[in-house]
């Protein structure tokens, strides 16, 4: 097995309960990137330029170029500006961000410090998913460690740069992973997405310019500043720089988080995860979290794990949650569970999502319980078409895309369920 360079998980001793502490982070070279900026007097413009060179793309799902996003922040704005980390990891199958915060929280803090310096921001928030209390408490301890050591607060490390960071604990609503719903939640309002435009860079938290990035995105930044954007790009492939942490779950022998270069063949990632459990055949794989379209096993085995390759295969890399399904999986039951999740998590703001997710779930549920009709398959397609692209945020798309993909690749299994009132497998 090829030995890969790791950016975020490098040097972490997962068996050591104190591996997360500041003393151990410093031994691993922690905060050297921040010190480099101050000692070499690297300008904010150069920092952003290095991030652009790295081809780092948002690791939360959308894959938007990070350096480009940072350049949207108005430099000459004299009022308050905000930096927000989206650690609201609620996508089923995704568990990478909580491990970053649990085992290496200071790399996130350092990444946010560098981002704040680059954009001239003095205040930041880390929004932690409401159902992971231990991670929130870990982040609180890490922030206090950083503050006590002079890495947070006023005139950091003797510079004229000041930055305050606060952890904000969510309440477990999936919709708050959408960036504007997250901002509404921090403001103490109901977590519902805003209309865009205006975008957060112009009208964000408390109506002020705001930049929002994912946990893994920020955690990648210190390595880029320390080693250079071009070096980071070389770890991956053109337009897909660096490494990516994939959360592998399902029917594999060693489920877990694996950090590999962007563009790594899926077959190699599957081998890292111990291969298929029981030596069974790969039937299907959701490559980027439950909201992404499923791909058949034979397609995945010939696909590389990067944004462009997965898109070419017919899905999206999303959050990097790789859900493996073997030949014993009932696709009707699997889709029923996904449909129920999106039905439960819809915020109810948009009619197509509020009503449509309920219809999707109820139809799939009756197919699963032997009460389906052949016309239900066309009805599901029609419903999905009338949900996708017709909502304020992407939750409607997230509910519709799995349905469309399942019917595209496994329609015969749904038809069998309807005709024989039992599962094909």
How is the secondary structure organized here?
Layout: H1 22-27, H2 32-39, H3 44-54, H4 66-71, E1 82-87, H5 96-103, H6 105-119, E2 123-128, H7 133-148, E3 164-169, H8 179-186, E4 210-214, H9 215-227, H10 229-235, E5 243-250, E6 256-261, E7 264-265, H11 266-272, E8 282-286, E9 295-296, H12 297-300, E10 304-305, H13 307-313, E11 321-326, H14 331-345, H15 351-368, H16 375-387, H17 395-420
Parallel strand pairs: 1-2, 1-4, 2-3, 5-11
Antiparallel strand pairs: 5-6, 7-10, 8-9, 8-11
Helix pairs in contact: 2-9, 3-6, 3-10, 5-6, 5-7, 6-9, 9-10, 14-15, 14-17, 15-16, 15-17, 16-17
Q: Order of SSEs, N→C?
A: HHHHEHHEHEHEHHEEEHEEHEHEHHHH
* Average of per-residue pLDDT values: 96
Biggest sheet record:
5 strands, mixed
Can you tell me the residue ranges where pLDDT is under 50 for at least 5 consecutive residues? none
- Rg on CA atoms, Å: 22 Å
Briefly note the CATH topology name of the largest domain.
Answer: Rossmann fold
Overall strand count: 11
Helix content: 40-55%
Brief write-up:
44% of the residues lie in helices and 13% in strands.
């Amino acid at each position: 097995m090829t030995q890969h360079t790791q950016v975020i998980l490098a040097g972490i001793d997962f068996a050591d309960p104190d591996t997360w502490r500041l003393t151990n982070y410093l031994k691993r070279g922690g905060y050297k990137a921040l010190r480099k900026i101050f000692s070499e007097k690297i300008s904010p413009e150069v920092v952003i330029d290095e991030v652009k060179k790295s081809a780092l793309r948002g690791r939360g799902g959308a894959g938007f170029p990070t350096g480009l996003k940072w350049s949207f922040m108005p430099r000459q704005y004299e009022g308050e500006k905000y930096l927000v980390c989206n650690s609201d990891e609620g996508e089923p199958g995704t568990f990478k961000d909580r491990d970053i915060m649990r085992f290496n929280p200071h790399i996130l803090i350092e990444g946010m410090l560098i981002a704040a310096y680059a954009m001239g921001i003095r205040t930041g928030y880390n929004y932690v998913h409401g159902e992971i209390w231990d991670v929130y408490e870990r982040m609180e301890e890490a922030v206090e460690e950083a503050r006590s050591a002079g890495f947070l607060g006023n005139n950091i490390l003797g510079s004229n740069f000041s930055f305050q960071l606060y952890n904000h604990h969510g309440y477990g609503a999936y919709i708050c992973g959408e960036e504007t719903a997250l901002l509404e939640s921090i403001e103490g309002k109901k977590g519902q997405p805003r209309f865009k435009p205006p975008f957060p860079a112009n009208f964000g938290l408390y109506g002020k310019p705001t930049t929002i990035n994912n946990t893994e995105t920020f955690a990648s930044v210190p390595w880029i500043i320390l080693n250079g954007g071009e070096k980071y790009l070389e770890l991956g492939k053109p337009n897909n720089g660096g490494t990516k942490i994939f959360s592998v779950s399902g029917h594999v022998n060693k489920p877990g988080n694996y950090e590999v270069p962007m563009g790594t063949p899926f077959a190699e990632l599957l081998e890292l995860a111990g291969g298929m459990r029981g030596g069974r055949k790969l039937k299907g794989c959701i490559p980027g979290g439950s909201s992404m379209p499923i791909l058949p096993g034979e397609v995945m085995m010939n696909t590389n794990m990067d944004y462009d390759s997965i898109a070419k295969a017919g899905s999206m890399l999303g959050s990097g949650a790789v859900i493996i399904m073997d030949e014993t999986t009932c696709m009707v039951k699997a889709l029923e569970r996904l449909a129920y999740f999106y039905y439960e998590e819809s915020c109810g703001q948009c009619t197509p999502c509020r009503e449509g997710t309920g219809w999707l779930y109820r139809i799939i549920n009756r197919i699963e319980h032997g009460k389906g009709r052949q016309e239900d398959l066309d009805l599901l397609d029609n419903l999905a078409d009338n949900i996708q692209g017709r909502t304020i945020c992407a939750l409607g798309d997230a509910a519709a895309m799995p349905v469309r993909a399942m019917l595209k690749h496994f329609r015969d299994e749904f038809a069998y369920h309807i005709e024989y009132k039992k599962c094909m497998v």
